[in-house]
UniProtKB/TrEMBL annotation:
PANTHER family membership: 3-KETOSTEROID-DELTA-1-DEHYDROGENASE, KSDD-LIKE STEROID DEHYDROGENASE RV0785
Name the record gives this protein: FAD-binding dehydrogenase
Keywords from the UniProt entry: Flavoprotein, Oxidoreductase
Domain of life (superkingdom): Bacteria
Species in which this protein is naturally found: Deinococcus daejeonensis
Domain FAD-dependent oxidoreductase 2 FAD-binding: residue ranges: 7-534
One Pfam family per UniProt: FAD_binding_2
SUPFAM superfamilies hit by this protein: FAD/NAD(P)-binding domain
Organism ancestry: Bacteria, Thermotogati, Deinococcota, Deinococci, Deinococcales
UniProt cross-references to Gene3D superfamilies, sorted A to Z: FAD/NAD(P)-binding domain, Succinate dehydrogenase/fumarate reductase flavoprotein, catalytic domain
InterPro entries registered for this protein in UniProt: FAD-dep_OxRdtase_2_FAD-bd, FAD/NAD-bd_sf, KsdD_DH, Succ_DH/fumarate_Rdtase_cat_sf
Length: 553
Protein backbone atom coordinates (compact mmCIF):
# COMPACT_ATOMS: atom_id res chain seq x y z
CA UNK A 1 0.00 0.00 0.00
CA UNK A 2 1.47 3.34 -1.12
CA UNK A 3 0.45 6.38 0.94
CA UNK A 4 1.18 9.94 -0.13
CA UNK A 5 -0.12 13.28 1.09
CA UNK A 6 -0.68 16.42 -1.02
CA UNK A 7 -2.65 19.62 -0.73
CA UNK A 8 -4.74 18.74 -3.80
CA UNK A 9 -5.01 15.61 -5.93
CA UNK A 10 -5.95 15.94 -9.60
CA UNK A 11 -7.32 12.74 -11.16
CA UNK A 12 -6.67 12.85 -14.90
CA UNK A 13 -3.74 14.34 -16.82
CA UNK A 14 -5.69 15.71 -19.78
CA UNK A 15 -6.13 19.37 -20.64
CA UNK A 16 -8.57 20.20 -17.83
CA UNK A 17 -6.32 18.40 -15.35
CA UNK A 18 -3.19 20.22 -16.49
CA UNK A 19 -4.96 23.58 -16.33
CA UNK A 20 -6.22 22.88 -12.81
CA UNK A 21 -2.84 21.57 -11.68
CA UNK A 22 -0.94 24.57 -13.01
CA UNK A 23 -3.38 26.98 -11.38
CA UNK A 24 -2.76 25.17 -8.10
CA UNK A 25 0.98 25.10 -8.62
CA UNK A 26 0.96 28.79 -9.41
CA UNK A 27 -0.83 29.42 -6.12
CA UNK A 28 1.87 27.54 -4.21
CA UNK A 29 -0.08 24.35 -3.51
CA UNK A 30 1.46 20.86 -3.52
CA UNK A 31 -0.27 18.98 -6.31
CA UNK A 32 -0.38 15.28 -7.16
CA UNK A 33 -1.61 14.41 -10.65
CA UNK A 34 -2.77 10.81 -11.21
CA UNK A 35 -3.54 9.08 -14.48
CA UNK A 36 -4.23 5.45 -15.36
CA UNK A 37 -2.21 5.75 -18.58
CA UNK A 38 1.51 6.25 -18.99
CA UNK A 39 3.37 9.52 -19.40
CA UNK A 40 3.22 9.12 -23.17
CA UNK A 41 -0.51 9.98 -22.94
CA UNK A 42 0.01 13.26 -21.08
CA UNK A 43 -2.57 15.74 -22.36
CA UNK A 44 -5.27 13.15 -23.01
CA UNK A 45 -7.72 13.76 -25.83
CA UNK A 46 -6.67 17.36 -26.38
CA UNK A 47 -3.48 16.05 -28.00
CA UNK A 48 -5.52 14.48 -30.80
CA UNK A 49 -7.76 17.47 -31.37
CA UNK A 50 -7.72 19.99 -34.19
CA UNK A 51 -7.24 22.77 -31.65
CA UNK A 52 -10.31 24.88 -32.41
CA UNK A 53 -11.36 27.42 -29.79
CA UNK A 54 -14.67 29.26 -29.48
CA UNK A 55 -14.11 33.03 -29.23
CA UNK A 56 -16.60 35.88 -29.49
CA UNK A 57 -15.89 39.21 -31.25
CA UNK A 58 -12.19 38.41 -31.57
CA UNK A 59 -9.59 40.44 -33.49
CA UNK A 60 -9.47 37.57 -36.00
CA UNK A 61 -13.20 37.89 -36.61
CA UNK A 62 -13.09 41.66 -36.88
CA UNK A 63 -10.23 41.59 -39.41
CA UNK A 64 -12.38 39.36 -41.62
CA UNK A 65 -15.46 41.59 -41.34
CA UNK A 66 -17.31 39.10 -39.12
CA UNK A 67 -19.68 40.98 -36.82
CA UNK A 68 -20.11 39.05 -33.61
CA UNK A 69 -21.27 39.99 -30.11
CA UNK A 70 -21.94 38.48 -26.73
CA UNK A 71 -25.69 38.99 -27.25
CA UNK A 72 -25.64 37.12 -30.58
CA UNK A 73 -23.50 34.32 -29.18
CA UNK A 74 -25.71 33.98 -26.11
CA UNK A 75 -28.81 33.71 -28.30
CA UNK A 76 -27.09 31.09 -30.47
CA UNK A 77 -25.91 29.12 -27.43
CA UNK A 78 -29.25 29.06 -25.64
CA UNK A 79 -31.18 28.24 -28.79
CA UNK A 80 -28.79 25.39 -29.50
CA UNK A 81 -28.64 24.12 -25.90
CA UNK A 82 -32.45 24.08 -25.50
CA UNK A 83 -32.24 23.78 -21.71
CA UNK A 84 -35.54 22.34 -20.46
CA UNK A 85 -34.91 20.41 -17.23
CA UNK A 86 -34.93 21.37 -13.54
CA UNK A 87 -31.36 20.03 -13.29
CA UNK A 88 -30.28 22.59 -15.90
CA UNK A 89 -29.98 25.22 -13.14
CA UNK A 90 -26.19 25.02 -12.84
CA UNK A 91 -25.57 24.21 -16.53
CA UNK A 92 -27.37 27.45 -17.47
CA UNK A 93 -25.21 29.46 -15.10
CA UNK A 94 -22.04 27.79 -16.38
CA UNK A 95 -23.10 28.55 -19.96
CA UNK A 96 -23.51 32.24 -19.17
CA UNK A 97 -20.20 32.39 -17.29
CA UNK A 98 -18.41 30.67 -20.17
CA UNK A 99 -19.90 32.99 -22.78
CA UNK A 100 -18.66 36.00 -20.81
CA UNK A 101 -15.23 34.34 -20.59
CA UNK A 102 -15.17 33.64 -24.36
CA UNK A 103 -16.14 37.23 -25.10
CA UNK A 104 -13.78 38.63 -22.46
CA UNK A 105 -10.48 37.47 -21.04
CA UNK A 106 -10.19 34.05 -22.70
CA UNK A 107 -8.19 35.18 -25.73
CA UNK A 108 -5.95 37.57 -23.78
CA UNK A 109 -5.22 34.89 -21.17
CA UNK A 110 -4.27 32.31 -23.79
CA UNK A 111 -2.36 34.81 -25.92
CA UNK A 112 -0.35 35.72 -22.83
CA UNK A 113 0.56 32.04 -22.47
CA UNK A 114 1.94 32.05 -26.02
CA UNK A 115 -0.99 30.67 -28.00
CA UNK A 116 -1.61 31.94 -31.53
CA UNK A 117 -4.34 31.27 -34.10
CA UNK A 118 -4.69 30.71 -37.82
CA UNK A 119 -6.01 33.95 -39.37
CA UNK A 120 -9.04 32.28 -41.01
CA UNK A 121 -11.96 31.64 -38.63
CA UNK A 122 -13.92 28.43 -39.20
CA UNK A 123 -17.66 27.94 -39.11
CA UNK A 124 -18.55 24.90 -37.02
CA UNK A 125 -22.22 24.03 -36.59
CA UNK A 126 -23.39 26.59 -39.14
CA UNK A 127 -27.03 25.58 -38.73
CA UNK A 128 -29.33 26.55 -41.58
CA UNK A 129 -32.80 25.89 -40.21
CA UNK A 130 -33.52 29.49 -39.22
CA UNK A 131 -32.61 32.35 -36.90
CA UNK A 132 -34.21 30.66 -33.89
CA UNK A 133 -32.85 27.19 -34.68
CA UNK A 134 -29.55 25.63 -33.54
CA UNK A 135 -26.20 26.76 -34.92
CA UNK A 136 -23.60 29.50 -35.03
CA UNK A 137 -24.82 32.63 -36.80
CA UNK A 138 -21.23 33.52 -37.73
CA UNK A 139 -17.83 31.78 -37.83
CA UNK A 140 -16.34 31.42 -34.32
CA UNK A 141 -13.97 28.44 -34.66
CA UNK A 142 -10.44 29.76 -34.06
CA UNK A 143 -7.85 27.19 -35.10
CA UNK A 144 -4.78 27.16 -32.85
CA UNK A 145 -1.41 27.29 -34.56
CA UNK A 146 -0.02 23.90 -33.50
CA UNK A 147 -3.52 22.32 -33.22
CA UNK A 148 -4.26 20.34 -30.05
CA UNK A 149 -0.59 19.98 -29.02
CA UNK A 150 -0.31 23.76 -29.39
CA UNK A 151 -3.16 24.22 -26.90
CA UNK A 152 -1.55 21.80 -24.47
CA UNK A 153 1.97 23.18 -24.76
CA UNK A 154 1.89 26.09 -22.29
CA UNK A 155 0.16 24.03 -19.60
CA UNK A 156 2.41 21.02 -20.02
CA UNK A 157 5.45 23.31 -19.90
CA UNK A 158 4.27 24.96 -16.69
CA UNK A 159 3.39 21.59 -15.13
CA UNK A 160 6.86 20.24 -15.84
CA UNK A 161 8.43 23.38 -14.38
CA UNK A 162 6.44 22.89 -11.17
CA UNK A 163 7.45 19.22 -11.16
CA UNK A 164 11.13 20.19 -11.31
CA UNK A 165 10.71 22.46 -8.30
CA UNK A 166 8.83 19.80 -6.32
CA UNK A 167 5.53 21.65 -6.25
CA UNK A 168 3.83 19.12 -8.55
CA UNK A 169 4.19 15.35 -8.83
CA UNK A 170 2.92 13.00 -11.51
CA UNK A 171 1.90 9.41 -10.74
CA UNK A 172 1.20 7.64 -14.02
CA UNK A 173 -0.28 4.14 -14.26
CA UNK A 174 -2.29 4.86 -11.11
CA UNK A 175 -5.94 4.00 -11.65
CA UNK A 176 -8.27 5.59 -9.10
CA UNK A 177 -11.08 3.23 -8.13
CA UNK A 178 -12.71 5.16 -5.28
CA UNK A 179 -12.87 8.24 -3.13
CA UNK A 180 -11.87 8.33 0.53
CA UNK A 181 -14.37 10.19 2.70
CA UNK A 182 -14.09 11.23 6.32
CA UNK A 183 -16.56 13.26 8.32
CA UNK A 184 -18.70 13.82 5.22
CA UNK A 185 -15.80 15.28 3.21
CA UNK A 186 -13.63 13.81 0.46
CA UNK A 187 -10.13 13.47 1.89
CA UNK A 188 -8.33 11.41 -0.73
CA UNK A 189 -8.44 8.62 -3.27
CA UNK A 190 -7.64 4.93 -3.46
CA UNK A 191 -6.86 2.73 -6.38
CA UNK A 192 -4.62 0.29 -8.23
CA UNK A 193 -1.10 0.59 -9.55
CA UNK A 194 -0.93 -0.82 -13.07
CA UNK A 195 2.16 -2.47 -14.48
CA UNK A 196 4.45 -0.35 -16.71
CA UNK A 197 3.39 -0.54 -20.33
CA UNK A 198 5.17 0.56 -23.48
CA UNK A 199 2.01 1.01 -25.56
CA UNK A 200 2.21 4.10 -27.75
CA UNK A 201 -0.05 7.11 -27.16
CA UNK A 202 -3.64 6.11 -27.82
CA UNK A 203 -3.01 2.36 -27.95
CA UNK A 204 -4.72 0.02 -25.48
CA UNK A 205 -2.53 -0.42 -22.39
CA UNK A 206 -2.20 -3.25 -19.91
CA UNK A 207 -4.60 -3.51 -16.98
CA UNK A 208 -2.43 -5.88 -14.94
CA UNK A 209 -2.42 -4.70 -11.30
CA UNK A 210 0.86 -4.70 -9.39
CA UNK A 211 -0.21 -2.96 -6.18
CA UNK A 212 -2.61 -0.53 -4.59
CA UNK A 213 -2.45 2.96 -3.10
CA UNK A 214 -4.19 5.49 -0.91
CA UNK A 215 -3.41 9.19 -1.29
CA UNK A 216 -4.79 11.84 1.08
CA UNK A 217 -5.31 15.54 0.40
CA UNK A 218 -7.36 18.53 1.43
CA UNK A 219 -9.18 18.45 -1.92
CA UNK A 220 -9.61 16.23 -4.97
CA UNK A 221 -10.32 17.48 -8.51
CA UNK A 222 -11.73 14.97 -10.98
CA UNK A 223 -10.73 15.62 -14.61
CA UNK A 224 -10.98 12.06 -15.88
CA UNK A 225 -12.80 12.70 -19.17
CA UNK A 226 -15.80 11.17 -20.86
CA UNK A 227 -17.17 7.83 -22.00
CA UNK A 228 -16.72 7.79 -25.79
CA UNK A 229 -14.28 4.86 -25.82
CA UNK A 230 -16.68 2.67 -23.81
CA UNK A 231 -19.43 1.70 -26.25
CA UNK A 232 -21.24 -0.35 -23.61
CA UNK A 233 -21.62 2.77 -21.45
CA UNK A 234 -22.57 4.88 -24.48
CA UNK A 235 -25.33 2.42 -25.28
CA UNK A 236 -26.47 2.28 -21.64
CA UNK A 237 -27.05 6.06 -21.62
CA UNK A 238 -28.19 6.32 -25.25
CA UNK A 239 -31.43 8.41 -25.38
CA UNK A 240 -33.58 5.97 -27.34
CA UNK A 241 -36.71 8.07 -26.87
CA UNK A 242 -35.03 11.01 -28.64
CA UNK A 243 -32.61 9.34 -31.04
CA UNK A 244 -34.05 5.92 -31.63
CA UNK A 245 -31.87 2.85 -31.22
CA UNK A 246 -28.10 3.24 -31.18
CA UNK A 247 -26.48 2.12 -34.46
CA UNK A 248 -25.31 -1.48 -34.53
CA UNK A 249 -21.90 -0.26 -35.70
CA UNK A 250 -20.08 2.88 -34.55
CA UNK A 251 -16.47 3.91 -34.88
CA UNK A 252 -14.53 5.31 -31.93
CA UNK A 253 -13.27 8.87 -32.02
CA UNK A 254 -11.32 8.34 -28.79
CA UNK A 255 -9.11 5.54 -27.39
CA UNK A 256 -10.43 2.73 -25.20
CA UNK A 257 -9.13 4.31 -21.97
CA UNK A 258 -11.77 7.06 -22.34
CA UNK A 259 -14.01 4.70 -20.42
CA UNK A 260 -16.05 6.79 -17.94
CA UNK A 261 -14.83 4.62 -15.06
CA UNK A 262 -14.01 7.49 -12.67
CA UNK A 263 -17.27 9.28 -13.39
CA UNK A 264 -19.18 6.13 -12.45
CA UNK A 265 -17.05 5.65 -9.31
CA UNK A 266 -17.73 9.22 -8.17
CA UNK A 267 -21.44 8.74 -8.81
CA UNK A 268 -21.39 5.57 -6.70
CA UNK A 269 -19.73 7.58 -3.91
CA UNK A 270 -22.57 10.11 -3.85
CA UNK A 271 -21.79 12.62 -6.59
CA UNK A 272 -24.81 13.63 -8.65
CA UNK A 273 -24.60 12.57 -12.30
CA UNK A 274 -27.01 14.54 -14.49
CA UNK A 275 -27.88 14.67 -18.18
CA UNK A 276 -26.04 11.40 -18.90
CA UNK A 277 -28.32 10.90 -21.89
CA UNK A 278 -27.00 14.05 -23.57
CA UNK A 279 -24.18 13.04 -25.88
CA UNK A 280 -22.20 14.44 -28.77
CA UNK A 281 -21.53 11.87 -31.47
CA UNK A 282 -20.68 12.75 -35.04
CA UNK A 283 -22.37 11.58 -38.20
CA UNK A 284 -19.36 11.94 -40.53
CA UNK A 285 -17.09 9.21 -39.17
CA UNK A 286 -14.58 7.35 -41.34
CA UNK A 287 -12.82 4.11 -40.57
CA UNK A 288 -9.17 5.09 -40.28
CA UNK A 289 -7.11 3.30 -42.91
CA UNK A 290 -4.07 3.67 -40.61
CA UNK A 291 -5.56 3.19 -37.12
CA UNK A 292 -3.86 4.06 -33.84
CA UNK A 293 -6.47 2.54 -31.52
CA UNK A 294 -9.07 -0.15 -32.01
CA UNK A 295 -11.96 0.78 -34.29
CA UNK A 296 -10.28 4.17 -34.80
CA UNK A 297 -12.61 6.69 -36.43
CA UNK A 298 -11.74 10.02 -38.03
CA UNK A 299 -14.29 12.78 -38.47
CA UNK A 300 -14.67 14.75 -41.67
CA UNK A 301 -14.96 18.49 -41.11
CA UNK A 302 -17.07 19.15 -44.20
CA UNK A 303 -17.93 22.28 -46.08
CA UNK A 304 -21.59 22.67 -47.03
CA UNK A 305 -21.60 21.52 -50.69
CA UNK A 306 -21.69 17.70 -50.66
CA UNK A 307 -25.00 15.94 -51.27
CA UNK A 308 -25.94 13.90 -48.21
CA UNK A 309 -27.68 10.67 -49.21
CA UNK A 310 -29.44 7.92 -47.28
CA UNK A 311 -28.38 4.27 -47.84
CA UNK A 312 -30.60 3.96 -50.91
CA UNK A 313 -29.24 7.13 -52.54
CA UNK A 314 -31.98 9.64 -51.72
CA UNK A 315 -31.03 13.04 -50.38
CA UNK A 316 -31.50 13.73 -46.67
CA UNK A 317 -34.24 16.33 -46.15
CA UNK A 318 -33.22 19.92 -45.53
CA UNK A 319 -31.84 21.24 -43.17
CA UNK A 320 -29.69 18.11 -42.85
CA UNK A 321 -26.68 19.39 -44.76
CA UNK A 322 -22.95 18.91 -44.14
CA UNK A 323 -21.72 21.03 -41.24
CA UNK A 324 -25.25 22.11 -40.27
CA UNK A 325 -26.42 20.76 -36.90
CA UNK A 326 -24.70 17.53 -35.86
CA UNK A 327 -27.17 16.33 -33.25
CA UNK A 328 -30.27 17.03 -35.33
CA UNK A 329 -28.86 15.15 -38.30
CA UNK A 330 -27.75 12.33 -36.00
CA UNK A 331 -31.33 12.12 -34.70
CA UNK A 332 -32.69 11.91 -38.26
CA UNK A 333 -30.23 9.16 -39.16
CA UNK A 334 -30.68 7.05 -36.05
CA UNK A 335 -34.47 7.42 -35.87
CA UNK A 336 -34.61 6.35 -39.51
CA UNK A 337 -32.57 3.27 -38.65
CA UNK A 338 -29.91 4.00 -41.27
CA UNK A 339 -26.78 1.86 -40.75
CA UNK A 340 -24.77 4.46 -42.67
CA UNK A 341 -25.18 7.45 -44.98
CA UNK A 342 -23.24 8.85 -47.94
CA UNK A 343 -21.60 12.06 -49.04
CA UNK A 344 -21.57 12.53 -52.82
CA UNK A 345 -19.23 15.14 -54.28
CA UNK A 346 -16.36 15.51 -56.73
CA UNK A 347 -12.68 16.33 -56.66
CA UNK A 348 -13.26 20.09 -56.93
CA UNK A 349 -15.32 20.00 -53.73
CA UNK A 350 -13.14 17.59 -51.75
CA UNK A 351 -10.07 19.67 -52.48
CA UNK A 352 -11.62 22.82 -51.03
CA UNK A 353 -14.10 21.56 -48.45
CA UNK A 354 -12.77 18.39 -46.83
CA UNK A 355 -10.64 18.65 -43.73
CA UNK A 356 -10.04 15.81 -41.31
CA UNK A 357 -10.31 16.38 -37.59
CA UNK A 358 -7.25 15.66 -35.50
CA UNK A 359 -3.73 16.87 -34.96
CA UNK A 360 -2.23 13.85 -36.74
CA UNK A 361 -4.37 14.52 -39.84
CA UNK A 362 -3.09 18.09 -40.15
CA UNK A 363 0.71 17.87 -40.04
CA UNK A 364 1.15 21.35 -41.53
CA UNK A 365 -0.83 23.12 -38.79
CA UNK A 366 0.37 20.81 -36.03
CA UNK A 367 4.00 21.27 -37.06
CA UNK A 368 3.53 25.03 -37.50
CA UNK A 369 4.88 24.66 -41.03
CA UNK A 370 3.83 27.81 -42.88
CA UNK A 371 5.18 26.66 -46.23
CA UNK A 372 3.23 23.41 -46.04
CA UNK A 373 0.12 25.22 -44.82
CA UNK A 374 0.19 27.56 -47.83
CA UNK A 375 -0.09 24.53 -50.10
CA UNK A 376 -3.72 24.23 -49.01
CA UNK A 377 -4.43 27.01 -51.49
CA UNK A 378 -2.78 25.04 -54.30
CA UNK A 379 -4.27 22.66 -56.86
CA UNK A 380 -3.62 19.40 -55.02
CA UNK A 381 -5.94 17.65 -52.58
CA UNK A 382 -4.48 17.79 -49.06
CA UNK A 383 -2.18 14.82 -48.52
CA UNK A 384 -4.10 13.28 -45.56
CA UNK A 385 -7.37 13.52 -47.51
CA UNK A 386 -5.71 12.06 -50.60
CA UNK A 387 -4.44 9.17 -48.48
CA UNK A 388 -8.04 8.40 -47.45
CA UNK A 389 -9.13 8.63 -51.09
CA UNK A 390 -6.41 6.14 -52.02
CA UNK A 391 -6.62 3.77 -49.05
CA UNK A 392 -9.74 4.52 -47.00
CA UNK A 393 -12.24 1.64 -46.87
CA UNK A 394 -15.16 4.11 -46.98
CA UNK A 395 -14.19 5.93 -50.20
CA UNK A 396 -15.39 5.23 -53.74
CA UNK A 397 -13.81 7.25 -56.57
CA UNK A 398 -15.06 6.84 -60.15
CA UNK A 399 -15.28 8.82 -63.40
CA UNK A 400 -18.97 8.29 -64.14
CA UNK A 401 -22.11 8.26 -62.01
CA UNK A 402 -23.15 4.68 -62.95
CA UNK A 403 -19.69 3.41 -62.04
CA UNK A 404 -19.76 5.39 -58.79
CA UNK A 405 -23.13 3.93 -57.76
CA UNK A 406 -21.92 0.44 -58.66
CA UNK A 407 -18.91 0.98 -56.40
CA UNK A 408 -21.15 2.20 -53.58
CA UNK A 409 -23.33 -0.89 -53.83
CA UNK A 410 -20.25 -3.12 -53.89
CA UNK A 411 -19.17 -1.51 -50.63
CA UNK A 412 -22.60 -2.04 -49.01
CA UNK A 413 -24.16 -5.05 -50.79
CA UNK A 414 -26.83 -5.46 -48.10
CA UNK A 415 -28.01 -1.92 -48.87
CA UNK A 416 -27.87 -1.45 -52.66
CA UNK A 417 -27.84 2.11 -53.94
CA UNK A 418 -30.48 3.09 -56.50
CA UNK A 419 -28.83 4.62 -59.57
CA UNK A 420 -32.06 6.29 -60.72
CA UNK A 421 -32.52 7.93 -57.31
CA UNK A 422 -28.93 9.20 -57.19
CA UNK A 423 -29.06 10.46 -60.76
CA UNK A 424 -32.28 12.37 -60.05
CA UNK A 425 -30.75 13.99 -56.96
CA UNK A 426 -27.52 14.98 -58.70
CA UNK A 427 -29.16 16.27 -61.88
CA UNK A 428 -31.79 18.17 -59.90
CA UNK A 429 -29.09 19.86 -57.86
CA UNK A 430 -26.99 20.67 -60.93
CA UNK A 431 -29.93 22.24 -62.76
CA UNK A 432 -30.32 24.75 -59.92
CA UNK A 433 -26.89 26.15 -60.82
CA UNK A 434 -28.00 27.59 -64.18
CA UNK A 435 -29.10 30.78 -62.41
CA UNK A 436 -27.56 32.80 -59.57
CA UNK A 437 -30.58 32.18 -57.31
CA UNK A 438 -32.72 29.02 -57.46
CA UNK A 439 -34.82 27.20 -54.89
CA UNK A 440 -32.32 24.73 -53.43
CA UNK A 441 -31.80 25.85 -49.79
CA UNK A 442 -28.49 24.02 -49.50
CA UNK A 443 -27.10 26.02 -52.40
CA UNK A 444 -28.37 29.17 -50.71
CA UNK A 445 -26.29 28.23 -47.65
CA UNK A 446 -23.26 27.69 -49.90
CA UNK A 447 -23.68 31.07 -51.56
CA UNK A 448 -24.22 32.80 -48.23
CA UNK A 449 -21.09 31.21 -46.76
CA UNK A 450 -19.02 32.48 -49.67
CA UNK A 451 -19.91 36.03 -48.69
CA UNK A 452 -17.20 35.63 -46.00
CA UNK A 453 -13.71 36.06 -47.42
CA UNK A 454 -12.09 33.09 -45.69
CA UNK A 455 -14.98 30.79 -46.66
CA UNK A 456 -14.67 31.85 -50.28
CA UNK A 457 -10.89 31.54 -50.43
CA UNK A 458 -10.10 28.34 -48.55
CA UNK A 459 -13.22 26.60 -47.30
CA UNK A 460 -16.29 26.61 -49.59
CA UNK A 461 -16.08 25.60 -53.24
CA UNK A 462 -17.62 27.74 -55.94
CA UNK A 463 -20.97 26.17 -56.88
CA UNK A 464 -20.57 24.09 -60.01
CA UNK A 465 -22.26 21.00 -61.49
CA UNK A 466 -21.05 17.77 -59.98
CA UNK A 467 -21.40 16.06 -63.36
CA UNK A 468 -19.04 18.50 -65.07
CA UNK A 469 -16.00 16.35 -66.01
CA UNK A 470 -13.73 19.33 -65.29
CA UNK A 471 -14.47 18.94 -61.57
CA UNK A 472 -14.10 15.16 -61.53
CA UNK A 473 -13.69 12.42 -60.70
CA UNK A 474 -16.86 11.76 -58.70
CA UNK A 475 -16.48 10.66 -55.08
CA UNK A 476 -18.78 8.87 -52.64
CA UNK A 477 -17.91 8.58 -48.96
CA UNK A 478 -19.63 6.10 -46.67
CA UNK A 479 -20.28 7.76 -43.30
CA UNK A 480 -20.51 6.02 -39.93
CA UNK A 481 -21.62 7.36 -36.55
CA UNK A 482 -18.52 8.21 -34.53
CA UNK A 483 -18.60 8.23 -30.71
CA UNK A 484 -16.87 11.21 -29.19
CA UNK A 485 -18.02 13.27 -26.19
CA UNK A 486 -20.36 13.41 -23.22
CA UNK A 487 -22.48 16.51 -22.79
CA UNK A 488 -23.74 15.52 -19.34
CA UNK A 489 -21.65 14.84 -16.26
CA UNK A 490 -21.12 15.41 -12.56
CA UNK A 491 -23.16 18.35 -11.31
CA UNK A 492 -21.00 21.24 -10.09
CA UNK A 493 -21.63 24.75 -8.83
CA UNK A 494 -19.86 27.80 -10.26
CA UNK A 495 -16.78 27.04 -8.14
CA UNK A 496 -16.47 23.57 -9.67
CA UNK A 497 -17.55 21.92 -6.41
CA UNK A 498 -19.31 18.59 -6.95
CA UNK A 499 -22.88 18.36 -5.65
CA UNK A 500 -24.90 15.52 -4.19
CA UNK A 501 -28.33 14.60 -5.56
CA UNK A 502 -30.11 17.05 -3.25
CA UNK A 503 -27.89 19.96 -4.25
CA UNK A 504 -25.60 19.76 -1.21
CA UNK A 505 -21.89 20.34 -1.83
CA UNK A 506 -19.59 17.33 -1.40
CA UNK A 507 -16.83 19.02 0.64
CA UNK A 508 -13.38 18.52 -0.78
CA UNK A 509 -14.48 17.31 -4.23
CA UNK A 510 -14.29 19.30 -7.48
CA UNK A 511 -14.72 18.33 -11.12
CA UNK A 512 -13.77 19.90 -14.44
CA UNK A 513 -13.73 19.08 -18.12
CA UNK A 514 -15.79 16.38 -19.77
CA UNK A 515 -16.41 14.44 -16.55
CA UNK A 516 -18.45 17.49 -15.43
CA UNK A 517 -20.14 18.01 -18.79
CA UNK A 518 -17.51 20.76 -19.25
CA UNK A 519 -19.14 22.61 -16.35
CA UNK A 520 -22.21 22.27 -14.16
CA UNK A 521 -23.06 18.81 -15.43
CA UNK A 522 -23.85 19.88 -18.98
CA UNK A 523 -23.35 23.52 -19.96
CA UNK A 524 -23.89 22.69 -23.65
CA UNK A 525 -27.42 21.41 -23.07
CA UNK A 526 -28.56 19.05 -25.83
CA UNK A 527 -26.27 20.42 -28.56
CA UNK A 528 -23.03 22.31 -28.79
CA UNK A 529 -21.74 25.28 -30.75
CA UNK A 530 -18.11 24.31 -30.20
CA UNK A 531 -16.33 21.86 -32.42
CA UNK A 532 -13.59 20.59 -30.13
CA UNK A 533 -14.69 21.46 -26.57
CA UNK A 534 -11.20 22.55 -25.59
CA UNK A 535 -12.60 25.84 -24.31
CA UNK A 536 -14.73 24.06 -21.75
CA UNK A 537 -11.72 22.14 -20.45
CA UNK A 538 -9.71 25.35 -20.22
CA UNK A 539 -12.44 27.28 -18.43
CA UNK A 540 -13.66 24.64 -16.00
CA UNK A 541 -10.10 23.50 -15.23
CA UNK A 542 -9.15 27.08 -14.39
CA UNK A 543 -12.26 27.59 -12.24
CA UNK A 544 -11.77 24.35 -10.28
CA UNK A 545 -8.04 24.90 -9.85
CA UNK A 546 -8.46 28.42 -8.53
CA UNK A 547 -11.35 27.45 -6.25
CA UNK A 548 -9.43 24.51 -4.77
CA UNK A 549 -6.36 26.70 -4.29
CA UNK A 550 -8.45 29.23 -2.37
CA UNK A 551 -10.06 26.52 -0.24
CA UNK A 552 -6.73 24.91 0.73
CA UNK A 553 -4.83 28.01 1.84
Amino acid sequence: MTTVQADVIVVGAGLAGLVAATELGGAGRRVLVLDQEGEQNLGGQAFWSLGGLFLIDSPEQRRLGIRDSLDLARRDWLTTAAFDRPEDHWPRQWADAYLQFAAGEKRAWLHGLGMRWFPAVGWAERGGAGADAPGNSVPRFHLTWGTGPGVLEPFERRAREYARTGRLSFAFRHRVTGLIQSGGAVTGVRGEVLEPCGAARGERSSRVVTGDFEFSAQAVILTSGGIGGNHDLVRRHWPTERLGAAPAFMVSGVPAHVDGFMQQAAHAAGANLINADRMWHYTEGLRNWNPIWENHGIRILPGPSSLWLDPSGRRLPYPHIPGGSSLDTLAHITRSGYPHTWFLLNRAVIKREFALSGSEQNPDLTGRDLRLTLRRAGKAVQAPVQAFMDHGPDFVVRSTLPDLVAGMTALTPDHPVDLAAVQAEVEGRDLQLRNPAGKDPQLAIVRGARAFLQERLIRVAKPAPFLDPAGGPLIAVKLNVLTRKSLGGLETDLHGRVLRAGGEVMPGLYAAGEVAGFGGGGYHGYRALEGTFLGGCLFSGRVAGRAAAEATR
